[in-house]
Specification:
- The protein has about 230 residues and is α/β, with parallel strands linked by helices.
- It has a domain at about 1-25 and about 80-115 and about 180-225: 3-Layer(aba) Sandwich (Rossmann fold).
- It has eight helices and ten strands.
- The strands form three sheets. It has a five-stranded parallel beta sheet with strand order 2-3-1-4-8, with helices on both faces. Strands 6-5-7 form a three-stranded antiparallel beta sheet.
- Helix 3 crosses helix 4.
- The protein is globular, with a radius of gyration of 19 Å.
- It catalyses: AMP + ATP = 2 ADP.
- It is found in: Cytoplasm.
- It holds the Pfam family ADK.
- Monomer.
Length: about 230
C-alpha cells in the first residue's frame, strides 16, 4: 500500500506516520530523515540540502524530489510506503506522480489530517523543552511539570523555542494554506483523499486512519476498532 499523509503543523503527522507504517508493515519515508541520511553520507544531494538548511532555508524542490526519487527506487519500498513531509507543494506532487508513473505504480490513498487552527496554536505554542535535554518535552496544558519551569526528569530549565511562539506558528499555517493545501486539491481531483479528524487521543486518530484505508472496522456506535 502506498500512502501519503498530509496535514498542517501540529496535526500529529509524525506520530501517526510512524504508527501507521508499523501497523501496515510498510516503509515510513520522512524527508527530514532522508536529508539527515544524505548529509551524514556526504552525498551530492546531502551537501546541497545542507547548504540550504544551514542557512535556515528549505531545500529546493529539485533536491527534495531527488532524495525522494532515490528512496522510492530502493527494493524495500516494493511492499509499500508511507510518505511524511512530501510533497509540500504542487510542483512536488506533480513530480511524485511522474516518479510513480515511471515505475508503473500510483498512490493508493491520501490521508488529510484536519485540525482547527486554534488547536494547532494551542498544541505548538504550549510546548516547553528542557534546556539540558530537548527530548524532555512538556506542555502548559497537556503535560505540566511537577514544578513550574523545571524538567521532571533532570531539573533543567524549561523554555519555549522561537519556532513554537504563536506568531511563528500562525505564519507557518499561512505557508501551509498557500503552498501545501493545494496538494490536497490535486489528489482530491484523483479521488484519493480521505479527510480525518486529528483531534483526540493518538490511538483514536490511528483507528480513523485505518478505517479510511479499509484496515479497520466501525462498530454500531460509529466508533472505530482495529
Amino acid at each position: 500500500m502506498r500512502i501519503l499523509l498530509i496535514g498542517p503543523p501540529g496535526a500529529g503527522k509524525g506520530t501517526q506516520a510512524v504508527r501507521l507504517a508499523a501497523h501496515l508493515s510498510i516503509q515510513h519515508i520522512s524527508t527530514g530523515d532522508l536529508f539527515r541520511e544524505h548529509i551524514d553520507q556526504g552525498t551530492e544531494l546531502g551537501q546541497n540540502a545542507h547548504t540550504h538548511i544551514r542557512a535556515g532555508l528549505l531545500a529546493p524542490d529539485e533536491v527534495t524530489i531527488g532524495v525522494i526519487k532515490e528512496r522510492l527506487a530502493r527494493p524495500d519500498t516494493e511492499r509499500g510506503f508511507l510518505l511524511d513531509g512530501f510533497p509540500r507543494n504542487l510542483a512536488q506532487a506533480e513530480a511524485l506522480d511522474g516518479i510513480l508513473a515511471d515505475s508503473k505504480s500510483r498512490l493508493d490513498a491520501v490521508l488529510d489530517l484536519e485540525i482547527p487552527e486554534a488547536e494547532v496554536v494551542r498544541r505548538i505554542a504550549g510546548r516547553r523543552l528542557c534546556r539540558r535535554d530537548r527530548e524532555h518535552i512538556f506542555h502548559v496544558d497537556y503535560s505540566q511539570p511537577e514544578v513550574a519551569g523545571a524538567c521532571d526528569v533532570c531539573g533543567g530549565e524549561l523554555y519555549q523555542r522561537d519556532d513554537d511562539r504563536e506568531a511563528t506558528v500562525r505564519k507557518r499555517l499561512e505557508v501551509y494554506r498557500s503552498e501545501t493545501a493545494p496538494v490536497v486539491d490535486h489528489y482530491q481531483a484523483q479521488g484519493l483523499v480521505t479527510t480525518i479528524s486529528a483531534l483526540g487521543q493518538v490511538q483514536e486518530v490511528l483507528d480513523r486512519a485505518l478505517v479510511a484505508i479499509g484496515q479497520g472496522q466501525v462498530d454500531a456506535s460509529g466508533a472505530s476498532s482495529c
